[in-house]
């Protein structure tokens, strides 16, 4: 029985179906063109920013396997020392790998070293390592904390017992400075802070900086570093505060030994300062002048150490980025840790060699002008008077030796 009347409005032939399908495809194509054409679409597509062919990991691998000067230029370390630094951080538990984390220790340390060595902005590092600025900031702060912990192992005295060859082999210094174990002074590093506390960190040049107190030995190694002082603080007050707080762990030398300091500090046991003024007889004034010249030559080891530190890490010169004060403190301590690491593990470092050569010229210029328990802190007047007499005796003996 014919049942066509029960089906109304349908198109059952194949040719009609093909025509409809073609119309639908043409409509989809036209809509797609309109969507992606800026003349028809007001919605702009998001442009890919991090589109480098090399990921951050691949970039670090390229530096490790590439020309040796390239990694030194970027990170201030050659390949063996870079890998050793990464191994130290991991083996001593100062850098932990997380299973869900894509950035490994080598990439994390590399981007931090580039930040410190070139004062690179996080935006630039994000483009180079193909990460977001938030990821870069997180890893920089993480490695800084690890380097500060490593600094507890590296920034410490090594030998207070023996006279250093720098003193022992120099007729200008021996025997008068045989008990000098190093030098102590402060320096300014660039800082950033909130507007309400900005005046406390403003130095005499009108810039923002913080004061760093440091002591070093004759090998240009830091043995103590203290940060978090506004630049308006006085040198002597900072040292006194450091010595009187047992929690700060200042490494006092053994009894009779001392650090060379400048005239802004008090001449007292453990710290030998130059003479102030020119009083006394002609011979006494001449003896004091001779002592001060040679004392300055001994003490300039700390100035040269600061010079190497700032030359290697321009981030300390500033202007400092808007890090929190705690992060800025970690930056200074991390740079000092890396400084000692390079001094210990990079014997022919160009920065240290250059400063050593300049130091030899400085000593020649002066010449042309002719583990024991540390001693207790003694700021009593009697102790200071005795120390002044010892300094006077050294100066007198030095003068007699120079004129005989």
UniProtKB/TrEMBL annotation:
What is the organism field in this record? Answer: Coffea arabica
- GO MF annotations for this entry? hydrolase activity; metal ion binding; nuclease activity
Q: Where are the transmembrane segments?
A: none
Q: What coarse category fits the chief subcellular location reported for this protein?
A: nucleus
Cofactor(s) listed: a divalent metal cation
A GO-annotated cellular component: nucleus
Q: Which residues form the DUF8040 domain?
A: 52-148
| Record gene name | LOC113702352
Question: Which Pfam families does the entry mention?
Answer: DDE_Tnp_4, DUF8040
Query: Where in the numbering of this chain does the DDE Tnp4 domain appear?
Result: 198-340
InterPro entries this protein is in? DUF8040, HARBI1-like, HARBI1_dom
The name on file for this protein is Nuclease HARBI1
Sorted alphabetically, which keywords does the UniProt record give?
Hydrolase, Metal-binding, Nuclease, Nucleus
Please give the family membership noted in the entry.
Answer: Belongs to the HARBI1 family.
Q: Is Glycoprotein one of the keywords?
A: no
Protein origin, superkingdom: Eukaryota
Q: Where in the cell is it found?
A: Nucleus
């Amino acid at each position: 029985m014919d049942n066509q009347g029960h089906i109304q409005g349908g198109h059952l032939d194949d040719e009609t179906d093909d025509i409809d399908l073609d119309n639908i495809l043409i409509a989809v194509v036209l809509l797609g063109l309109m969507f992606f054409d800026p003349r028809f679409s007001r919605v702009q597509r998001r442009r890919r920013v991090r589109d480098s062919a090399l990921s951050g990991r691949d970039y670090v691998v390229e530096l490790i396997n590439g020309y040796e000067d390239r990694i030194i230029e970027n990170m201030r370390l050659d390949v063996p020392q870079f890998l050793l630094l990464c191994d130290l951080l991991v083996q001593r538990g100062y850098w932990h790998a997380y299973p869900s984390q894509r950035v490994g220790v080598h990439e994390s340390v590399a981007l931090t070293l580039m930040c410190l060595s070139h004062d690179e902005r996080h935006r630039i590092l994000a483009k180079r390592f193909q990460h977001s600025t938030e990821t870069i900031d997180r890893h920089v702060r993480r490695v800084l904390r690890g380097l500060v912990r490593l600094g507890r192992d590296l920034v410490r005295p090594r030998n207070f017992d023996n006279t250093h060859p720098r003193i022992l082999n120099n007729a200008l210094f021996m025997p008068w400075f045989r008990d000098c174990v190093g030098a102590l002074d402060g320096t300014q590093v660039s800082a950033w802070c909130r507007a309400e506390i900005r005046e406390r960190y403003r130095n005499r040049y009108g810039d923002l900086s913080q004061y760093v107190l440091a002591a070093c030995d004759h090998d240009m190694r830091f043995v103590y570093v203290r940060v978090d002082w506004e630049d308006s603080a006085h040198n002597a007050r900072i040292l006194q505060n450091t010595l009187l707080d047992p929690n700060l762990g200042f490494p006092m030398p053994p009894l009779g030994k001392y650090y060379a300091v400048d005239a802004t500090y008090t001449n007292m046991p453990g710290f030998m300062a130059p003479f102030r003024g020119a009083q006394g007889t002609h011979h006494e004034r001449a003896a004091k002048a001779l002592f001060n010249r040679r004392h300055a030559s001994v003490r300039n080891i700390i100035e040269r150490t600061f010079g190497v530190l700032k030359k290697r890490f321009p981030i300390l010169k500033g202007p400092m980025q808007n890090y929190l004060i705690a992060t800025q403190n970690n930056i200074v301590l991390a740079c000092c840790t890396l400084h000692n690491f390079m001094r210990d593990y990079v014997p022919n470092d160009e920065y240290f060699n250059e400063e050593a050569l300049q130091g030899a010229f400085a000593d020649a210029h002066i010449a042309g002008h002719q583990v024991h328990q540390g001693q207790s802190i003694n700021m009593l007047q009697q102790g200071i008077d005795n120390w002044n007499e010892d300094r006077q005796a050294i100066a007198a003996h030095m003068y007699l030796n120079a004129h005989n």
